[in-house]
Amino acid sequence: MIPFNKAPYLPAAEKYVTEALRSSRIAGDGTYTKLCSKWMEERFQAKKILLTTSCTAALEMCAILLDIGPGDEVIMPSYTFVTTANAFVLRGAKIVFVDIRPDTLNIDEEKIEAAITDKTKAIVVVHYAGVSCEMDKIMELAKQYGLPVVEDAAQGVMAAYKGKALGTIGTLGCYSFHETKNYTMGEGGALVINDEQYVEKAEILREKGTNRARFFRGMVDKYSWVDIGSSYLPSEINAAVLYAQLERADEINEDRLCSWEQYYGELKGLPIDLPQVPEFCSHNAHIFYIKVKDLKERQHMLAYLAAHDIGAVFHYVPLHSSEGGRKFGRFFGEDVFTTKESERLIRLPMWYGLRGEEITKVAKVIETYIDGV
Fold it and tell me: What does the alpha-carbon distance between residue 231 and residue 239 come to, in Å, rounded to a whole number?
């Protein structure tokens, strides 16, 4: 069996988890939490990065920090995970979905401006598969209309746009360290703060509405409740697992990129569509997907791959077509590509340590299926 995903296993993680346990300090914002944040801030040249319990939590923090409320509209693609929309719906916002580009499956930057109204409060972009959206155009629009940009870079750790790390370009950014991501702490995420006006408020929000962060910096003699907040801190055990991977981030990244390139080399020439990466993007090989003719062919190929012990899967069902999407949002303009492209996509096995012979087997099974059609 070639599973769809395997979380990275590094012996150093056991060592760091043991050290955290023996320290008897396993709550949030301890040694390993700080090490992870510092590593990312330095590597990605970010102003401030706060580890969170999930990317969901980071997105919810974004909605609160931007003061999203009832009557506001938030623009985003429909081809994304439910969290991207739900974080803003929880604050009472209406979601305005716009179409995606067929090449990258990212929000079509040319469709955003027409969707902006006097109710628009934010633009949320999703960097699908660790391939960046066209951020220059989007940031120009945001500046023109005075709108903040949230980067859902759940899949974008170690990827970049014109040399700038994904998550560090917009007003705020979010990472995921879920088990299925390139770097994982089981469940976890991070909030990237690129506008300093949000740093202190984010610290308070993350610490249950208290000024605990200021207390530990010696700025107040005791901490107390000062604003709204919740508990968004991951434990030191989770952070210890993540830090072991960040130490070897380049190795993990290169391994995945090699797998991605092998897939591409072995599958090119077949009558299927392969991922496209614009020249301005440095991707992180988070996903290798193929696109087949239509939904019917996808169902047949997935069944064929499963019968040959290959764990391939489809991805998002567009949010605007779901019950929740219809209730809390609307699609602006014409759905030219979102549904069509979503129904064609198959994600192939991809993880750190995937062997070359396993990739060859997957490619051969796909070729055999196509030859037999």
Answer: 16
Residue 290: which pLDDT band, with cuts at 50, 70 and 90?
A: very high
Domain of residue 355 covers: 249-372
Residue with tokens 């299926």: 369
Domain-located, residue 6: no
Domain endpoint, select from 246, 267, 299: 246
- Dist CA 98 CA 349 (whole Å): 29
Question: According to the model, what pLDDT value does residue 29 have?
Answer: 92
| CB-count burial class (<10 Å; 0-12, 13-18, 19+) for 71 | exposed
Q: Which amino acid is at 198?
A: Y
The backbone torsions φ and ψ at residue 287, rounded to the nearest 5 degrees and listed phi first, read -130, 140
Catalytic annotation, residues: 181
The burial of 209, by beta-carbon neighbours within 10 Å (0-12 exposed, 13-18 middle, 19 or more buried), is given as middle
Phi, psi at residue 147, to the nearest 5°? -110, 140
**153 and 182 Cβ atoms separated by less than 8 Å:** no
pLDDT at 214 (0 to 100): 83
pLDDT at 104: 98
Q: Could you give the CA distance from residue 74 to residue 94 in angstroms, rounded to a whole number? A: 6
